[in-house]
Amino acid sequence: MSTVQETKVEKPEMKRKFYHLIINGEKLESSNGTTFKTYNPATGEVIAEVAKASKEDTEKAIQAARQAFDYGKWKKYPVNKRSRTINKIASIMRARFNELVELEILDTGKSLHAAQGQVMQAIEDFEFYASAIVGHRGAVNSVPGPFQNYTEKEPVGVCAQIIPWNYPLMMTAWKIAPALAVGCSVIVKPASLTPLTAIILGEICLEAGVPEGVVNIIPGSGSEVGNYLVEHKQVDKVAFTGSTPIGKNIMERASQTLKRVTLELGGKSPNIVFDDADLEAAVDGSLFGIFYNTGQSCEARSRLYVHESIFDEFVHKFVEKTKKLTLGDPFDKGTHIGAVIDQNQLDVIDGYVKSAIEDGADILTGGKVAQVKGFENGFWYEPTVIANVNHKMKVVNEEIFGPVVVIMKFSDEKEAIKLANDTEFGLGSALWTKDGARATRVANQIQAGIVMVNCPFSAFPGTPFGGYKQSGFGRELCIETLDLYTETKSIISYYGSRPLNPFGL
Ligand code: NAP
Ligand code: MG
Question: 333 with 444, same domain?
């Protein structure tokens, strides 16, 4: 997703076998002693045991965050002091870069290249918000008569932040960094499948000088801990990244207390290749667009539309290059595709491919569970290209969240736009053309939060990330995110020389 640092990461020995909850600045076991195991999806091996937050622990974390917000010093710090502390978080992360990369690979099975880019982006997110907060301020508004009006941006309060498993550290950074910048307190619930790097990030926040209670990390189950956070009266905001069905459920529950809600949800992003595109660049970019992070990306460009006049040539090149993608040891520099997160997700992916076959589609390459030498107990799927599909098929309409792409033809610009927009989702989109006017015209008509023009990358610190339609609402990673963690207070004052007497009594 971002810049990749050239470093050699050795295969690590997992020295630490137990990870604690972080509540009120303390590393704690869970109140009822419950733990859960986390696995390396590449090998199927247990890598560590993690304290599992109970409802009681969740309540404790909420009270800690509440105290820290209502009576603590974090939000009262001058902006430059908060900014300095956030930069310190980034510099500790830089110093521990290799350790974070190793841990992320072990917990997710993703490739070295992907993990390095994501850890680097997580670091850069903190650096971005350390700078962005300095320019974040209210306004002076012009009003008639002897009145003055100005607005203040005040932190919204205690924020519950719920994280998915596909980008465990990067998503945690996207959420913690802006909330900290404006002065909020947070309770982070990592995904149960991938809790480790979020816990380390919580420890780093404390080490950097974030006061106790401001950052709490509580791994635990979504239905228990997640629901408790979402329904609690003393939580002011919930920021969720995950699947669309859970996002809808969260919005409904949060409505009972009128919590502020931001939702970063699923996608089925279109990728349009016009007849005048640089074919090689479009093939390489489209390959990255779907197979990066093993296709487990919310903005994976999983619907590929290619102009009919270049369809055969493009598909031939695309399939040949797909066959060259290497599945293997995630720690090897040459590995392109890492593991799928677990058996459940592997079954989901395979189920979609089988449904496509039943619907009459053609599998051009891949289409089955992969056998990877030395990783027989892990979860792997062959990069899969499916053609002869239409918009009535499940494989075209639903998010698969794996290394599977469908390819279709179009005959003109109008049809390409129509097909691209024929979806419930609206997160990413990409288009490949050398015609600048066409690029602008199509970008303007696509119903998606992100349009990538001749570009395979969807996000850098500072670029808004978020969806249209059922891909959610709110934008992360950008200046506007700061507004989503603040309330605007309007202060009106009278400066006339005579007292006001509106009733005239
Ligand atoms: P998920 O099943 O929706 O889970 C996401 C998080 O929500 C996990 O921490 C989960 O906890 C928690 N959760 C589950 N039920 C909950 C509930 N009732 N109340 C509160 N929290 C609950 O999604 P996932 O499978 O982890 O992630 C994949 C999905 O995320 C895909 O749909 C993908 O498109 C989306 N995603 C979107 C973006 C974006 O920026 N738009 C980025 C990344 C991923 P447990 O799993 O621990 O139970
Ligand atoms: Mg894991």
Answer: yes
Residue whose entry in the numeric block shows the structure tokens 């005579």 = 498
| Ligand 1 near 162 CB (within 6 A) | yes
Distance 344 CA to ligand 1 centre (A): 14
pLDDT-derived band at 478, boundaries 50, 70, 90: very high
Q: What is the CATH number of the domain that holds 386?
A: 3.40.309.10
Q: Using the predicted structure, report yes or no on whether residue 291 has a pLDDT greater than 70.
A: yes
Q: What are the DSSP calls for 101-170, one per residue?
A: HHHHHHHH---HHHHHHHHHHHHHHHHHHHHHGGG----EE--SSSEEEEEEEEE--EEEEE--SSSHHH
Q: Is 191 touching ligand 1 by the criterion CB < 6 Å?
A: yes
Q: Does 215 lie in the same domain as 278?
A: no
Task: For the full predicted model, state whether its pTM sits above 0.85.
Answer: yes
> Would residue 4 count as lying in a domain?
no
Q: How sure is the predictor about 465, in pLDDT bands with cuts at 50, 70 and 90?
A: very high
What the block records as the tokens of 375 is: 């990783």
- From atom 9 of ligand 1, which residue's Cα is the shortest distance away? 191
Q: Which of 102, 104, 124, 264 is catalytic?
A: 264
Is the domain of 303 the same as that of 415? yes
Same domain? 82 vs 222: yes
Residue 343 Cα to chain centre, angstroms: 22
Ligand at shortest distance from the CA of 341: 2
Q: Is 264 in the pocket of ligand 1 (CB under 6 A)?
A: yes
87 and 113 together in one domain: yes
| 500 inside domain | no
User: DSSP label at 72?
Assistant: -
Q: Are 234 and 38 in contact (CB under 8 A)?
A: no
Spacing, Cα 199 to ligand 2 middle (Å): 13
How many residues appear in the chain?
A: 505
Residue 261 and residue 282 in one domain: no
Confidence of residue 3 (pLDDT cuts 50, 70, 90): very low
Task: State in Å: Cα 255 to ligand 1 middle.
Answer: 19
The residue range of the domain holding 449 is 270-453
* Residues 153 and 29 reside in one and the same domain: yes
Judged against a pLDDT cut of 60, whether residue 1 lies above it is answered with no
Assess whether 6 carries a catalytic annotation. no
Instruction: Kindly state the tokens that stand for 263.
Output: 């939702």
Nearest residue (by CA) to ligand 1, atom 39, is 264
CB distance 241 to ligand 1 below 6 Å: yes
- Using DSSP bridges, classify how beta strands 237-241 and 158-162 pair: parallel, antiparallel or unpaired: parallel
Q: Is the CB of 304 under 6 A from ligand 1?
A: no
In a domain, 206, yes or no: yes
pLDDT digits (tens, 9 = 90+) for 104-128: 999 999 999 999 999 999 999 999 9
86 inside domain: yes
What CATH number is given to the structural domain containing 140? 3.40.605.10
Q: If you measure from the C-alpha of residue 40 to the centroid of ligand 2, how many angstroms do you get, rounded to a whole number?
A: 5
